[in-house]
Amino acid sequence: IRYRCRFARDIRLLFRLGSVSTLLIYMIAIPLGIYKAMHHGSGIDKATAMLLAIGHAIPVFVFAVILLVFFAGGSYWNIFPLQGLTSENFDQLSTLGKVKDYFWHLALPLLASTVGGFAGLTYLTKFSFLEELGKQYVLTARAKGLGERQVLYGHVFRNAMLIIIAGIPAAIVGIFFAGNFLIEIIFKLDGLGLLGFEAIQQRDYPVIFGTLFIFTLVGLLLQLISDLSYHLIDPRIDFEGR
User: Fold this and answer.
1) By CB neighbour count within 10 A (0-12 exposed, 13-18 middle, 19+ buried), where does 205 fall?
2) Residue 100: is its pLDDT beyond 80?
């Protein structure tokens, strides 16, 4: 019963932390990548490239430790809590207070997982759009008098997004499991990755197989969603015809 309760709680934490961080990464990376492609070589493109290179070079766990040192009472400011998901008086708070307290505790873990994940996706988006912008059909569309927004979202977007969609399963699995596992250890969060790691140390085989089953199931579902998204983005891709 104890393992069942913890397993259910860890799965909820996994999907909450992973889904929110993934959503933030894609909300930042795709618009930024498109903007960098449309303004390639500009000052903003070069400045953001430097920041992205730094964010990509710093490992997730190193950035998490830096956040703890600076903002969780390490050596500078004590703004955010050091560990855990809720405060001691969580049950006494109002509904709005519980929501604020929960996201106050998740602020640093989300920031650490987001910064380490959106650099690669931003570059993938940028170079995917740059490749499409240099093709002949874009020149033809511009020659016909179409505006840049019509060319970008009416023609380029559909073709450029195929490469990004292809990398979604691997990116999400990495964010959910590899990145969150380190975040869980540093911020003392009881998650599925930490549970699996402790089970390996203790040779608890039922828990090991349970976590592996969840990892594999999520990976297969993400791959299926990715394949179905191909047809939604580009109707020319027809699986039934093949």
Assistant:
1) exposed
2) yes
